[in-house]
Amino acid sequence: MNRTKTEGMQALDRALRNKLERTVTEARDVAEVAARAAIEQLGVGEPKPYAHLSDQEKDLRRKLRIHGRQLGDSLNGGKDQSMDRLIEEVAYEHWHRMLFARFLAENNLLMYPDPDDPVAVTLEECNDLAADEGAANGWELASRFAARRRPRLNHERSTPSCRLLVLFLLLRCRGTPDYCALIV
For 148, how many CA atoms within 13 A lie in the half-sphere containing its CB? Predict the structure, then answer.
């Protein structure tokens, strides 16, 4: 039998669907602003690395430039590099991690990865545990816990460069609006 509605589930009210759509769109826009800020802070689009960058940051910058070109970002005149596709991918990766962490937390599925006895944790508990676990904040820790539960396909899609930049975003771009709060 072909059914058009899932049994037991009601459609979300139109006003709530519209609010959800606006919130998701706004959060994605803020994620792109944050991704652009982090990428510009590393000077990814510039011909030469900034002098203040550490060796690790220069290596990350180089990997991001390569990955951007693999995505289709072009070298303009062989010097400056466009960054639109790289920014889009990094924003998507970061947004997806935060959204998935929120989903898991709201459904009591965000797990502290104790090998003997994994236990569900809340976002508030992630905030409390962050310093002990070496995370910059609760969202970074929640994202780390959520990453362990992501489908394998998404892990394979995520490049090492994007994972490094997501960490860079979390650690360095604190002045950027916290779009994680929009996922409330």
Answer: 13
Question: How is 152-172 classified by DSSP, letter by letter?
Answer: HHHHHHS-HHHHHHHHHHHHH
**Domain interval for residue 42:** 15-183
What CA–CA distance (Å, rounded) separates 106 from 108? 6
Residue 24 lies in a domain: yes
DSSP H helices in 107-159: 123-129, 138-147, 152-157
pTM of the model: 0.69
Q: Is the dihedral of CA 169, 63, 24, 153 positive or negative?
A: negative
Residues 91-111, mean pLDDT to the nearest whole number: 87
Q: Give the closest residue to 136 by CA, choosing from 102, 174, 106.
A: 174
Domain count, the chain: 1
Measured between alpha carbons, how far is 51 from 44 in angstroms, rounded to an integer? 13
Sign of the Cα torsion 20, 110, 91, 54 reads positive
